[in-house]
User: What shape does this take?
Amino acid sequence: MIRLKLLTISLLILSYSVCFAEFRVAVSTTQIADLTYNVAGDDIIIQSILSPGQDPHTYSPVPKDIETVSKADLVIENGLHLEGKNWMRTLANDAGKTLVTATSGLRPLIMEKDGMKVNDPHAWFTPQNAAVYLNNITRALIKLDPANKHNYVARAKLYLANLKALDGWIRSEVSTIPPEKRVLVSNHDAFQYFAKAYGFINTAPIGWSTGSEVGGGVTPKRREEVINSIKQMNVKAIFFETTINPKLIREIAKDAGVKIGGELYSDSMGDVDTPGETYIGMMRENVLKIVKGLK
Ligand SMILES: [Zn+2]
Assistant: This one.
């Protein structure tokens, strides 16, 4: 009897240690961390380099990040130069790790940056594109850990259905805003994909991308043009974004005589225990704010 018990206990210990022989994945952004978690569950340890509220464009890795990546079995980046100076790619290359680009296979939109036409990296802002991220992540996890393939495929299937439901819900919410009022003005250029998918005109004032804000590079002439265009478009509200200093947009709103529609999640999800702590939560809260502000 005692012998049987011992055997059971040692079997339990064995299976416990097998379960916890986990792989580690290092990801760059909070939204990629959430998408990865929805495929990986607790089968893989996921570590995000960025914390909620941090700006991927201007981030510089710290020694702790080098350690995180060196312990990882796989590294996932957004790509399309979201990570300024390709810091995630550099971390992965320096540590000799396999790098997966979550936006692989997407057809990027073009945006203007410092007078140059570049690929727009903010691709996660449509559920359709989030599905591309998810499929790339799922393929990479299966390759890393084929023993758990069933779990990864099953979780991905459920989450893809959630993304499809999210898209339908966004369409129905946005349909309550009269088409002529669908103008989305914010202090950063993160919403082009969203705007295009859901019939908004998106004008992030040109020259206000993160880099120019840091450099304080908005000229008085440009500022006046922006205020005039906001007045002409007859928008009810303009928005600011969580990863960006809101001072400029407050001043512009005041001078243009429009209200602030609130803070939208852009390059980062919200803190833990906030409604924006997941990808779907972030999208939901943004849409509700936009609908309330513009209707
Ligand atoms: Zn951005």
